[in-house]
Design goal:
single chain; 396 residues; Nucleotidyltransferase, domain 5; eight-stranded mixed β-sheet; six-stranded mixed β-sheet; globular; acetate kinase activity; nucleotide-binding; cytoplasm; ATP binding; transferase
Length: 396
């Protein structure tokens, strides 16, 4: 018996979810924004719809974590810090080093920091959060859960780029993927829904949110995935371009008089995708409202659907068919029209969505039309639950 924390630390943010284990019951969740930026917002949801909220200056992650733990005690969510038996940290890049989640010791922490060049915005923030928690809760087991580890099972022909092989050997230039914890969770739930061992299934899981990735799963393992060396590759996303010809990048840099590669990467990461095409918004809900009268908003949505269909079609060929496709994450769980249109365009493969079953948001459900050869499932993701499950698995 104990309580486990799932933590996601950003450069100026801290998000958490507290679980009673082994019951896997969420007893509190919250976030702290604008750490070190002044006027930080602290939010904690707990109990039967209760909410604590305050604004104050928080100078660093040490202060943020201490405040969070103190407030959990003040609100009587925990009686003392000793009730917390594990802390799990989401870490974006595990490189080729981490093929599974890992208990954090000095060596693991150093490797997380060394891998920062693969995720310069995320790994340093995660390391900062890990150090802060270890300082305040030194005797509690800490576990790192990597976004990339699920994808380390990909065969070499799927993760290699057709560039000089020495770049892979010297610099680790290869596909790493992302959203691995989400894909892992929904794959396990899909197996439970279908009543079959995961190892016996072929699945295509679609994590469609502000960031989006599609993964082909074979024998219970990631076989291929749409994101690449970084999360910039793959399908069109809220502000990311997805796949793009590298020569076009060089061409645009010349036309726009951009000298620094990072300035161009910033455009592709933050000013492209849905917002870049539509000129309206990065939020799919906003585009849905205006698409009837705004051709660019409709184009952005059509491109989003098109890129999903391309990847699913390719993965059906790679896998030699599939038992099910899975929609998850913000858009996947809540956009009824996107799900219907994607399924309709994949009808040739025996995929079909029942419009009545599909008229739902954020509820786990088999959406398949009667007679479909390939099941279509809606499964809300739960990355935090996977994190605390990994804590329990590794600390025993």
């Amino acid at each position: 018996m104990g309580k486990s924390l799932a933590v996601n630390a950003g450069s100026s943010t801290l998000k958490f979810k507290l679980f009673q284990m082994p019951e896997e019951e969420v007893i509190a969740e919250g976030a702290i924004d604008r750490i070190s930026l002044g006027n930080s917002l602290v939010e904690i949801k707990y109990g039967d719809g209760q909410k604590y909220e305050t604004h104050q200056d928080i100078n660093d992650h040490n202060e943020a974590i201490q405040l969070m733990l103190d407030q959990l005690t003040e609100l009587k969510i925990i009686t003392n810090f000793d009730e917390i038996t594990g802390v799990g940290h989401r870490v974006v890049a595990g490189g080729q080093e981490f093929k599974d989640s890992a208990i954090i010791d000095d060596d693991v922490l150093q490797k997380i920091e060394d891998l920062a060049e693969y995720a310069p915005l995320h790994n340093p923030a995660a390391a900062m959060g890990i150090k802060a928690f270890k300082k305040i809760l030194p005797n509690v087991v800490s576990v790192a859960v990597f976004d990339t580890s699920f994808h380390t099972s990909m065969p070499q022909e799927n993760y290699m780029y057709a560039i000089p092989y020495e770049y892979y050997e010297k610099y680790g230039a290869r596909k790493y993927g992302a959203h691995g914890t989400s894909h892992r969770y929904v794959a396990h739930r899909a197996a439970e829904m279908l009543g079959k061992p995961l190892e016996d299934l072929k699945l295509i899981t679609m994590h469609l949110g502000a960031g989006g990735s599609i993964t082909a799963i074979k024998d219970g393992k990631s076989y291929d995935t749409s994101m690449g060396f970084t999360p910039l590759a793959g399908i069109e996303m809220a502000t990311r371009s997805g796949d793009i010809d590298a020569s076009l990048v060089a061409y645009l840099m010349e036309k726009l008089n951009i000298e620094k590669p990072n300035d161009m990467i910033n455009i592709l990461n933050k000013k492209s995708g849905l917002v870049g095409v539509s000129g309206v918004s990065a939020d799919m809900r906003d585009l849905e409202k205006v698409q009837a009268k705004n051709p660019r908003a409709k184009l952005a949505r059509d491109m989003f659907i098109n890129r999903i269909v391309r990847y699913v079609g390719a993965y059906l060929a790679e896998l030699g068919g599939a038992d099910a496709i899975v929609f998850t994450a913000g858009v996947g769980e809540n956009d009824i029209t996107i799900r219907q249109e994607v399924a309709d365009k994949l009808a040739y493969f025996g995929i079909g969505v029942d419009s009545e079953k599909n008229n739902i948001r954020g509820v786990e459900r088999d959406l398949s039309k009667a007679g479909s050869k390939i099941k279509t499932l809606l499964i809300p993701t739960d990355e935090e639950l996977m994190i605390v499950r990994d804590i329990e698995r590794l600390r025993k």
